[in-house]
Amino acid sequence: MPNRLDTSSVLEVLKPVQDPELNKSLVDLNMIRNVAIADGNVSFTLVLTTPACPLRQFIVDECERAVKTLPDVKTVSVDVTAETPTQKALPDRTGIDGVKNILAISSGKGGVGKSTVAVNVAVALAQAGAKVGLIDADIYGPNAPMMLGLEGAKVTVRQSGAQEVLEPAFNHGVKLVSMGFLIDKDQPVIWRGPMLNGVIRQFLYQVQWGDLDYLIVDMPPGTGDAQLTLAQAVPMAGAVIVTTPQSVALLDSRRGLKMFQQLGVPVLGIVENMSYFIPPDMPEKQYDIFGSAGGEKTAQELQVPLLGCIPLEISLREGGDRGIPIVLAAPESASAKALTAIAERIAGRVSVAALA
Ligand SMILES: Nc1ncnc2c1ncn2[C@@H]1O[C@H](COP(=O)(O)OP(=O)(O)OP(=O)(O)O)[C@@H](O)[C@H]1O
Fold it and tell me: Residues that bind ATP, according to the entry (predicted)?
């Protein structure tokens, strides 16, 4: 134990403190910077690997505790920032300039709450300070514009050199492009594979995304052309599979999971939506409408993490309908807390994979 107070002794006592997800020393990971000491007041910057770090407070507390073991320390002040690592490049995939991590939110079947999860995870990450974009590639139900309060918005087209580029819409801290901006919502559209592929590629490469920590893609349900196009075009940081506890939904999600694994896309985990119902007038009650623990069983069987369980809550649907996602409209509700924790877990796993 050092018996003096200087920059090197601060780094020495901080060396055993690990990033709990990466299991490596914060000092070795270059996460401790700008150590300064003035009259017993120690300050430094802690650079996390994601602004949505689920263990932020725990890491800060551990750092403070370690530094306070040094003699003559009066105060410890930790300035927390984040630098999200960029996912690893793949030789046969073309990344998007400035976009660090591309994530797919997928489901085996429709109506399980995939868009609800995509929108709320995007907003929760933005709330934490991340730069976030969302591609609503769901041709069957392009709900993201409504859920983000951007219904009726239009993407502007600009000429950039020889290329036309789309300017995304923006609300609640999230940049959005959507199939809903391109099609009349009352007009049935028959999508052919090549057409859909073309639009997905346009959404990836011809949008003025700027710098993004996370680009989230709300996929159409099922295992079709869109998934294939996405996985073969860009390097993917991972896919998240949304399911409900019913066994049919779980069967479909197994299929989705296998598909991503075959395409070489890491599956970050499963989200179980509509896990149980909390009656608004009896919040202490919990009803397992679709059975219970299905997501947990599937996650165990397929050896992927269960990222979280979201209850059925009326306010969650209302938030979506009003264009104010529940993580903003009612952050203290059970579903908002679950969604925020899911966003943090996703961000944590993406960082771990990028730095592995
Ligand atoms: N946990 C929940 N509690 C209450 N309502 C929910 C919940 N999850 C989703 N919903 C509601 O269910 C409907 C369908 O959800 P959502 O559009 O997110 O599903 P989806 O899987 O994206 O559907 P689609 O396949 O049609 O795109 C929406 O009205 C949404 O607000």
Answer: 108-115
